[in-house]
Automatic annotation (TrEMBL):
InterPro entries in the record: 4Fe4S_Fe-S-bd (IPR017896), 4Fe4S_Fe_S_CS (IPR017900), PSI_iron-sulfur_center (IPR050157), YfhL-like (IPR047927)
UniProt keywords, alphabetically: 4Fe-4S, Electron transport, Iron, Iron-sulfur, Metal-binding, Transport
Taxonomy of the source species: Bacteria, Pseudomonadati, Pseudomonadota, Gammaproteobacteria, Chromatiales
Domain 4Fe-4S ferredoxin-type, residue spans: 1-29, 31-64
Cofactors required: [4Fe-4S] cluster
Pfam family, one: Fer4_7
GO cellular component, one term: cytoplasm
Protein name from the UniProt record: Ferredoxin
Keyword DNA repair (UniProt): no
Length: 83
């Protein structure tokens, strides 16, 4: 699954620079995660770096983007090859 921000995001700015895929950006009222770029850090790290640094635990799995580990790895490879 891709990750998503909840409304509890406090715009603390710590997650955006941690994302190796550039999936996190400032939205209208909170940061947002682009599901087309989010691989939950598969291919980069053992754990999702944004989740690790979030002080308010507002980053959850996005139920609208259910993906397996294999699908996340394929997305990582597609993103990596496009760059």
């Amino acid at each position: 699954m891709a990750l998503m921000m909840t409304d509890e995001c406090i715009n603390c700015d710590v997650c955006e620079p941690e994302c190796p895929n550039g999936a996190i950006s400032q939205g209208d009222s909170t940061y947002v995660i682009n599901p087309d770029l989010c691989t939950e850090c598969v291919g980069h790290y053992e754990t999702s770096q944004c989740v690790e640094v979030c002080p308010v635990d507002c980053i959850i799995k996005d139920p609208k983007h259910n993906e397996t580990e294999e699908e996340l790895r394929a997305k990582y490879e597609r993103i990596s090859n496009a760059g």
